[in-house]
Design a protein that fits this description.
The chain is α/β, with parallel strands linked by helices. It has 24 helices and 20 strands. The strands form five sheets. A six-stranded parallel sheet has the order 10-9-11-12-14-13, sandwiched between helices. A five-stranded parallel sheet has the order 1-2-3-7-6, sandwiched between helices. A five-stranded mixed sheet has the order 16-18-17-19-20.
């Protein structure tokens, strides 16, 4: 019997391998090396350990599998197809083709069963840490004695490239610190990268590094052939929950191919002759490409039947849970559906005109008001809570073992913070956020881009938003970051002009879907605007609005500003109106929200016939021509900042009323 099982196992593994190289050959593009080498470990994990339901990829208590080494995507697509997900043979044959569901690197939402968009190395490793955090947080929130409805693991397959990238090291360090015992990473250690042997640039002992991080480290010496050794390592990993586990699996990249063990099989297809030679080495007897032997198909499709049974048992447990804890069950259903609770925004704070409040401070108070009614809100900062004001009061510090606490101390790890926040968002059931200084978006950009690509409901809070922060100088003063974010599709940027707009920004961010939201906030105090004389702050939801109308309601010039520069625009309006130049002030906290408004509304705020327009923003002016037109003017920055008190820097670099007035006069003359 043992011999028969091993024979079926080998047939299944070689089916995965041959499907993968056939698809790469047909596309004439792809990475055949990883699927050939990593197929045994992936097969053992998926066939013997992974708890999932191919008939329902969104079952919440499934194990998560993240292919961080996304260049080996065909390995994942073959597993999805063979185990019964809605990934067809035609999908495999359409690998890397226009309109297909099997792109070059896995994409969340596009392919059923893909848990995260991966490819930029190290990102998936950080996402997996976020998923493990989410599991712990939800287990604490919902499990009760005798009723365990959250109990799953997160597995990641990582490559040599993944463990070289800094983000994976940051994330692994935090995972070890938090003792995330339900996280398992399988390291495909094949000692080859795209340029050649990994030894060209990489000679450290990765296992010892992870041990220093606080991980349990196991080794599989014969990862190409010894399925029982792989199985024993995974069993040892899942038998304990005291620390995350790294399984170092020694493999041969491109196993069985003429180019095995070399970089030549990493990122280039095998040609027809090499594919044939590989199949011969593997003992593959079928000549027709994309062949799935019936025995292999039956064996692998057991996952679908077993997964349905697993979910059915879970649903029985949930029904009992619902009878005993109806309120908790209703809360679970609400979170899974992504619905907001009734009255969640009723307690948002407001401020009186005349006060001076930094928008970071106001946003911090709004965050805490939202946190009272939105228990899924969880997050933290990159060791900057005193500055970003993003601590959830009475929320407690997150404990990776118990899952208690809502404040995650990411440490000085902006790279990992972004990827971990994304992982929590991928997981579902939580509304995660991360915070740091706006200039450190540079460290987070890859994660923010992937949040946008995956349309994740992640919230990023960035404070110290401009040269107005002052003495820390140009190393900390953002100049180009606003435009960087605005150039990123599916990203909503909100830069509020006062405390009340900051509260409204949280109203939008907490309920937004379809991509990340970035809240861009000031360090310095700003005057709270007199809304009795001006438009209400709730208009922020439209992205831009007429804050102060021109006398006679027929403006000759329109001043458009964001953030701290809006109060400057209001002062300039007074001077212009005193000079009989009818002036409208438009607050434009969010380009993206404004662009989504009907054309009629946009034309109402910015009438096409009024071409004298001035934008005022303490950052790069690139892109403002979209709103001011070719006949308008953009007051911005085309240089870095300087170290001095914030008000001095603003004035010296041209952000003062006299310049705005002079610019407006020039346009209307």
């Amino acid at each position: 019997m043992a011999t028969e099982i091993r024979t079926i196992d080998q047939l299944c593994i070689d089916t995965i391998r041959t499907l993968a190289i056939d698809a790469v050959l047909k596309a004439n593009s792809g990475h055949p090396g990883l699927p050939l080498g990593a197929a045994p470990m992936a097969y053992v994990l998926w066939q013997r350990h992974l708890r999932h339901n191919p008939a329902n990829p969104s079952w919440m208590d499934r194990d998560r599998f993240v292919l961080s080494a996304g260049h080996g995507s065909m390995l994942l697509y073959c597993l999805l197809h063979l185990t019964g997900y809605d990934v067809t043979m035609e999908d495999l044959k359409s690998f890397r083709q226009w309109g297909g569901r099997t792109p070059g690197h896995p994409e969340y939402r596009l392919t059923p069963g893909v848990e995260a968009t991966t490819g930029p190395l190290g990102q998936g490793a950080a996402n997996a840490v976020g998923m493990a955090i989410a599991e712990r947080a939800l287990a604490h929130a919902f499990n009760r004695p005798g009723h365990t409805i959250v109990h799953h693991r997160t597995f990641a397959l990582v490559s040599d490239g993944d463990v070289m990238e800094g983000i994976s090291g940051e994330a692994a360090s935090l995972a070890g610190h938090l003792k995330l015992g339900k996280l398992v990473a399988l390291y495909d250690s094949n000692h080859v990268t795209l340029d050649g042997p990994a030894s060209l640039s990489f000679s450290e002992d990765v296992g010892k590094r992870y041990e220093a991080y606080g991980w349990k480290v196991l080794h599989v010496r014969r990862g190409d052939t010894d399925l029982e050794e792989i199985d024993a390592a995974i069993k040892a990993a899942v038998s304990q929950q005291e620390q995350p586990t790294l399984i170092v699996v020694n493999t041969t990249i491109g196993y069985g191919s003429p180019k095995a063990g070399t970089s030549k099989v990493h990122g280039s297809p095998l040609n027809a002759e090499e594919v044939a030679a590989t199949k011969k080495t593997l003992g593959w007897e079928w000549q027709e490409p994309f062949t799935v032997p019936e025995d292999a198909r039956r064996a692998l499709l057991r996952a679908r039947e077993e997964g349905q049974a697993l979910e059915a048992k879970w649903r029985e447990r949930f029904a009992a849970y619902e009878r005993e804890h109806p309120s908790l069950a209703a809360e679970w259903n609400r979170r899974v559906a992504g619905r907001m609770p009734e009255g969640w925004d009723a307690a948002l704070p407001t401020w009186k005109a005349g006060e001076k409040v930094a928008t970071r401070v106001a946003a911090g108070k709004a965050l805490n008001a939202v946190a009272l009614t939105l228990p899924e809100l969880i997050g933290g900062d990159a060791d900057l809570s005193e500055s970003t004001k993003t601590t959830i009061e009475e929320g407690g510090d997150f404990d990776g073992q118990t899952g208690a606490g809502r404040n995650i101390h990411f440490g000085v790890r902006e790279h990992a913070m972004g990827g971990i926040v994304n992982g929590m968002a991928y997981h579902g059931g939580l509304r995660p956020f991360g915070a740091t200084f706006f200039n450190f978006l540079d460290y987070m950009k890859p994660s923010v881009r992937l949040a946008a690509l995956s349309e994740l409901p992640a919230i990023f809070v960035w404070t110290h938003d401009s040269i107005g922060l002052g003495e820390d100088g140009p190393t900390h003063q953002p100049v180009e970051q606003l435009m960087t974010l605005r150039a990123t599709p599916h990203t909503t940027v909100i830069r509020p002009c006062d405390a009340n707009e900051a509260a409204e920004a949280w109203r939008v961010a907490a309920s937004h879907a379809g991509g990340p939201v970035g809240l861009v906030l000031t360090r310095q105090n700003l005057p709270v605007l007199d809304r009795a004389k001006l438009a209400p702050a709730s208009m922020l939801a439209r992205g831009a609005y007429v804050l102060a109308e021109a006398s006679g309601k027929t403006p000759r010039v329109i001043l458009i500003a964001t953030g701290s520069e809006v109060s400057l625009a209001l002062e300039a309006r007074e001077a212009l109106e005193a000079a009989s130049i009818a002036t409208r002030v438009v607050s434009m906290p969010s380009w993206e929200l404004f662009a989504k408004q009907p054309a009629s509304y946009r034309d109402e705020v910015l009438p096409p016939k009024i071409r004298a327009r001035v934008s005022i923003e303490a950052g790069s002016s690139v892109g403002w021509e979209r709103w001011v037109g070719l006949d308008g003017a953009a007051i911005g920055l085309e240089r870095f900042g300087a170290s001095a008190p914030g008000d001095v820097v603003m004035k010296e670099l041209g952000f003062h009323v006299d310049r705005i007035v002079a610019t407006a006069r020039r346009l209307v003359s």
